[in-house]
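I hope you will forgive my troubling you with a question about protein structure. The matter concerns a single protein, recorded as an amino acid sequence and a row of C-alpha cells. Please examine both parts with care and let me know of anything in them that strikes you as inconsistent. Here, with my thanks, is the record as I have it:
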Amino acid sequence: MAGAVNRIRVVAGLIRQGGRILACQRHESGPFPLKWEFPGGKVKPGEADMDALRRELYEELAIEVDEATPFFAGQHRYPDGLEVSLNFFSVLSYRGVAQNLVFQRIEWVDLAKLQQMDFLAGDKPLIRCLTDLTALSSDRSE
C-alpha cells in the first residue's frame, strides 16, 4: 500500500565516560549503512522502555544497565515511511566494559567530534540538545 506508515518505538542509551560519549557505527551491509547512532533498538510489544534498554545494551555491548533516566524524546519520519518514536536514556551506571558485539565499530568521542559525525537523522536532535546544554553550562555570568 503506497504511503503506508510503519511506526516503531526505539530506546537508546547515552553512555558517558570521562567526558566522552559512546557512538556506534552501523554495518555497511545493513539499513542506513555506516551511519552513526547511539546504542539501543526496538521496543518489543508489551516491553517496558527500561527493559528494552537493558536488553538492547546487553545484546549490543555486553553491559548490564543498573541505572538510567529518561533524557530526551523525539520522533522522526524517514523518507521510506518509517516513523520512529525515540526515547533516549542517560545511562548513569552499568556493569561490564562496553564491547562491540554487533556494530561496524564503536568509539568514545567528545561532543565536538560527535557533531561532525554522520549520524542517523533521528539522533541529530539529541546531539543539538547536548550541544545547547553544554553551551548553557559554560555560559556562566560572573
User: Anything to note?
Assistant: The longest strand covers residues 64-77. Residues 6-138 form a domain with the Nucleoside Triphosphate Pyrophosphohydrolase fold (CATH 3.90.79.10). Strands lie at 6-17, 20-25, 36-37, 40-42, 64-77, 82-95, 105-109.
